[in-house]
């Protein structure tokens, strides 16, 4: 375990305090230090984990609120977090992903033990910016997670492209000094037979192999059934109703080997394999009617897309004495995405080919990164300097994405299905204890992309202690996101024979086509936040204002472009929009009710209030997010063995787009607002002994059910299902 150095720093040196009290929160665990008398200040990374827009989900939180399958079920209860699509189209309304501060899932960077996870990038992107994907928050079973860090706003800019909204770091359990293991079974049973059942079993085993070698092995198998095909039957406009929620079959296995070379040098090898297959529920993205083939697929519980993910990493961590530490990581991630062919020509976007032919896209990512931390003292001012580097190579081969012939790009033959991007970055950060009350954390990151040039990401975060229990914090940072491999590939062609073409465009008989664009610019976001926090004897409160000014968002909004006419085809490209803005408030409040500092009973609350989330040119929302979200819970440790929890979540009104995808003004049901609603839950856990514990609960206690009323924005904001009442139970045996 990381040993805290003795420090004469004043109370504001919270970075070291965090590292001492909560070592499991670190992105990379450090080997033991034998230099206990060294006086150091915490690193910039440790300091940024205490910014206003940072939340921590502990192991205890996961056990008290176990997710049915995807970790996003729990992450969504943090301030600033919602589940949305990557646009306000609602096309894949039930495949919602983690959205931080309204910036969209594509601007949420998922990490596992600090290593980026990008398997969703193997899924084609349609013109709305949506992917038919569950995202990347479901690759680690809940039983294998030690904690989860959610970083929003300026604190996340240090992680480079894709972190403009924020970062979710999933931290897995580490090898132990004694042999230990566990076996967990989880089940979720909805009251309605039309909704998803879940069954999951997971195991873990960890311990020493010898004096210097240790290991950790975990695995799981999960099946979540799909919603019934007729779940949303009352909203059918044709034979087939809007689709419910897909099911999923998960298989995960991971092995970590640790070698303690010396007391100060550690080498870790990590390798894993995961399989995720959907269970089709009839989703058709935009089409109002389906075919008999699609109905047959749904009734058979068929898989229409299956992802195979392989990972490997080698990590070296070193402690070089006097507070100097280093980390170097080499990582590989490979994803094979096998799908029934989706309609890219002559049919609705995302609809499945009735010939049920399959194709596979292959995504490979190589990453090499590292950093070195060293304490400094200049002019009597204590500092911790961090310098680091980041090298990435991403390659994609998707033959089906270039299978359409067109006068715009020539015949299919000769067009490469491969694309790749290479980038490298250098960054420097300094954590400076200016006074006993003020800490400044400036940073600068430089990225070099082989297609999109240079990008500078400066940042400045600050913390000022007004009183021992009251701290004022704020930050500003410039973040960016490079275009993905579909948006930038000039051979990638999306076409439609009319469905989705601009409403005012002439009908030339050849429909509309959209090409990838190698001349795109990166998306840029200037993120700002300021907040105040109170923390004393179990009482806690905070309020944060955030604002993200967003430029050059990459879109394919055809109504805002003038097409090139080639024969009877209207040709468009992915393009950079002008400006957008996201702003709002986040807050939290914790009240101890019983016991010392509330260790018996406490009331925990957080909220998010979105003031604005829209494109400044079109005035359309970037995503369909609630006006407000309030999460509240009563956490009662009734006895040493029995714990109980009552939860409540309140969602505000959700407004849809005011214009159609074709560009005309929306009318009728297209303007439907999803009204405020609330969900309650209750659960109880019991530890029978040190080796056996169980928990049972009821979600959506009052059975508030919502329905998907269209496969796209044709029903305004009513584009996803909220499941009804369900009973869940989990039991864990360990040794």
UniProtKB/TrEMBL annotation:
Residue positions of motif TonB C-terminal box: 718-735
Entry GO terms, CC: cell outer membrane
Entry keyword set: Cell outer membrane, Ion transport, Iron, Iron transport, Membrane, Receptor, Signal, TonB box, Transmembrane, Transmembrane beta strand, Transport
GO BP, sorted A to Z: siderophore transmembrane transport
Membrane topology, record value: Multi-pass membrane protein
CDD domains: ligand_gated_channel
UniProt-recorded name of the protein: Ferric enterobactin receptor
Pfam family, one: Plug
InterPro entries registered for this protein in UniProt: Beta-barrel_TonB (IPR000531), Beta-barrel_TonB_sf (IPR036942), PirA/FepA/PfeA (IPR058134), Plug_dom (IPR012910), Plug_dom_sf (IPR037066), TonB-dep_rcpt-like (IPR039426), TonB_rcpt_CS (IPR010917), TonB_sidphr_rcpt (IPR010105)
TonB-dependent receptor plug domain boundaries: 53-167
Source organism: Azonexus fungiphilus
Protein family per UniProt: Belongs to the TonB-dependent receptor family.
Transmembrane segments: none
Entry GO MF terms: siderophore uptake transmembrane transporter activity; signaling receptor activity
Subcellular location: Cell outer membrane
Location (main, coarse): membrane
Domain TonB-dependent receptor-like beta-barrel span(s) in chain numbering: 261-701
PANTHER family tied to this protein: TONB-DEPENDENT OUTER MEMBRANE RECEPTOR, TONB-DEPENDENT SIDEROPHORE RECEPTOR PROTEIN
